[in-house]
Structures
1.
Amino acid sequence: MKPKVVLVETNWVVDVTAPPHLQIPQAIDLLRQADAGEFKLYVPAICLAEARETVRRRFTPRSRSEDLRKFVKWAKDQGRVSIEDARTAFRIFDQFDGLVAHELTKVPERLDALANHPGLSIFPLSEPMLERQVSIGAMDLSLQPYDLAILAAVIVKSEELQQEGFPWVGFCELDSDLKPWNKSGARKPILSDLYDNARIWVYDDFSLEEIDQLPENWTSI
Amino acid sequence: MLVEVNLDDNSFHSQDVVNQFRHFMASIGCAVGLVVFGERIILLRDSFEKSNGESIDMVGEARLPDYLLPPADEQWKGNPSLEFESRVQRWLEKLKLSSSIKNLPNDLRELFGEPIINLLRLGEVMAAGPRWSKAAK
């Protein structure tokens, strides 16, 4: 059994808008399946704003090649790699830094382009979502403001979708703070109840693994 | 790093498990994988020279003797698969300590080497899914 509606969060946006060689195939595949009409994909607009910063911070090239540059320089000075090999390595680092820097300037374009995908809906935070954010914020979940906003958005959207005839939804998310289980796989009671009450099945990746059995009553409206 | 834990070492289906695991590593762009089959552990690494997991090679394998594994988290007692998963998770967490590395058998220490131990030290070993729902079944 697979959901007819799938929600995603910032990690998915980062994975599909990163420089091309760093994009995650599973995340791209989820978008492809949505565009093919296998399910509807929803993402809170706030995730795009968060991803804009995250992609830039995570993939800025200098920090990624600097250690390698230092290593090659050291290895060349020590006679561990030849001068020619070191030159080749530095040429590749230059190409890498140039490519990634160039690709990072295209992130806003790629974020905008997401809106053109027929299988993806980007939804803004609504009044009920902001209200829910306040009520969930009082539940002692120790979530960061962005996570809290995303959680409220996902829960309220799921409830709205039930009204529209989708009895349950899937939520593909990689953020450990938003998972309804802890590091040992045990249930986080408050978060689990929030997801269960809103009929949200949480996935740990973007593979949409087959579900053997849904909780009782999830399939009826 | 991804870790797949199987309670049994059934050579008949272990190749399928490894192939599926390779596919999963490639789909999320993961470079290092460990597959546990009972008392056997396999290390896989993707050199990223080819696409679609074609450059994921088996680096080697070693024995994972039962005595190395700490007891399972109490809450998973009674479900052998979950108990075993929990024991492997706890063992990997303990490997962050240098005293635990010293106690590793030679083949396991050689298989892991510094890079794997450093990966474990840098990160957190997380259950990839809810164990409670499997226990409820």
Note: The CA atoms of residues 143 and 177 of chain A lie 7 Å apart.
2.
Amino acid sequence: MTSGLAGRGVGVAGASTPPPAVDDVLDVRGLRTEFVGKEGTVSAVRNVSFTVRRAEKVAVVGESGCGKSALALSILGLIEPPGRVVGGEIWLNGRDISRFSERELRAVRGNEISLVFQDPMSALDPVKTIGAQIVEAIQRHQPNLGRRGAQGLALSLLREVEVPNAERRLNDYPHQYSGGMRQRVMIAIALANEPDLLIADEPTTALDVTTQAQVLDLLEKLVSDRGAAVVLITHNLGIVAEFCDRVQVMYAGRFVERAGVEDVFRRPTHPYTEALLRSVPRPDRLELGPLPSIPGSPPNLAHLPAGCTFEPRCPLGHGREICATVPPPPIQVGNPARVVAECHFARERWEAGEAS
Amino acid sequence: MRHGMPRLIAGRTLSSLSAIFGASLISFIFLRLVPGNPARLFLGQFASQDAVDKLVEQMGLKDPIYVQYYKYMWGFLRGDWGFSYTTGQPVTTQLGHRLPATIELGLYAFLFAFVGAVALAVIATYRRRPVVDGSVRAMSFFGLGTPPFWFGLVLLVVFSERLHLFPGPDGRLSIDSTQPPSITGLYTVDALVTGNFATFADALWHIVLPAIALGLAPLAFLVRLLRANLLDVSREPFIVVVRSKGIGRFSAFARHALPNAFLPTLTAAGLILGQLLAGSVLVEKVFNWPGAGALVTDGILRQDYAVVQAFILLSAVVYVVVNLVVDILYGVIDPRVRVVTAVA
């Protein structure tokens, strides 16, 4: 994270960048993450900026392979070689943790930010008891509790995430838990040290639908009890509508649209957002025929198109000169500005939406 | 689930006993199928046919084979392993002299292979430096392809002949060292418990080269296995989750990746230990090591049933017991094994 000046948009970092507003838990500025592979350098996160306020729930939505998980790991400083965060700042509670040493980061991880991982089946160590894995997180950041205290806290956390027979199940191993129960354990681990920010990377994707709803309700209750902010990474728009305050739509490593939940669902500004929404199954649209899908597949992040990254798949821009050649800048629409979309036709689309 | 471990142990012990039974049966039958008359061997070629026939009767070789087997096994269990047909000595005496040397060498070779493999695999995978990883892999390739007796000779030439760092092929001790009292028969152990440090150092000094020669191939094999397992486990999502709790890279590696990667290695290590305890004839020859290897090869060449039979049976018991211990250890480390057995 040393040579990212080009991505910051501000001259010399640090001194000239103003510290973020006090009520921002997280302020990511110009974050860029690359992976060096056989096909060349793949830009998984391309100059992404966003903020998360206290107790706010923000969604990051996009197809698989658009860079969502790389974004989560970049914020936590857990990108492993051949990947590398090449630029940007990550302000957490007023400190730029992108400049932190590994040692300083370890004090932040699991304490101020924590992670709920997507696949509960492989997210727990199969040869350690559930209790030991919760206690490990507690003892790392609250050593003064002692062994007893940590075990007591682990038990009350397990009760809080509504695992039945918590006392007995503390000594069970992951394979004795169902998928939904494991995800509850993951939430218990993530909340163990009362973090200010929880990054939930597809927390319900691997679960069946009834379990999804339960886990999500539980997550919502626990984070609002604690006043923690949440970045919810998902491709499931149904969850977003229910759970989040704001939405950032990610495509090919960039946020192509940032807006409130209402705006995104009522009048999507970016054509990609609109296409995503149209591919959500809805019972009231059954008679309209088969579910529309987005033609084509996400671009190869190693060889991005010259213009707008969505242009080859875009019903609006496809074939238009400007879309194929010029990368669209972020355009603010609404009065006062409430939606940012990276589309050359954002303004027209917004106005058309207002008229209808 | 709660009764997983006792059930696991009982089940595995039962199957171990049946494995030993099978091994004894097969080795017994095969040795009897080999042509040749042990009574004739024992008495020499100038003995009269009458004397030979009489001895055959005496040795019970006229009995049906299952009676012979029953008599042999009953004797074996009571510590009566028969007499060597060529020397007339009891087999227990003969093996008793030779086995401790083989076992001591096998244990040190295993120690070298196991500790070396863990160290090298950790070094190769922890930092993920291609150069380090590449050299470890090249070393294991070399180790797997090198015949141990040749490697033993090379070690002798380099470290004994040229550098004079280690003794030549003169067995377990230098001539001027006092032999430790026989407690376990393992010189290093016996010397240490009786406080004879000079002999301990001498015995250790003598065992280094043969142990390395014998342990190289198992080391190479274990490195490959453990390295592959470590790489697999380090890519598991739960390692990222552990790191996201604020646990450092090394702790995540040592406390989570290593125990998981260890499981398949443990099985292989058990098989290897069993093999190493059975000894290696060629390495023993190269280092003039007074182990059971030479005794058994001579026994085979001279059709000395009793020695070969006892050695095979003993090796089978050791092999099966080592693997039984591994199975039980597996259950201790991996909770999933306990459940599988409990269900079965």
Note: The two ends of chain A are 46 Å apart (CA to CA).
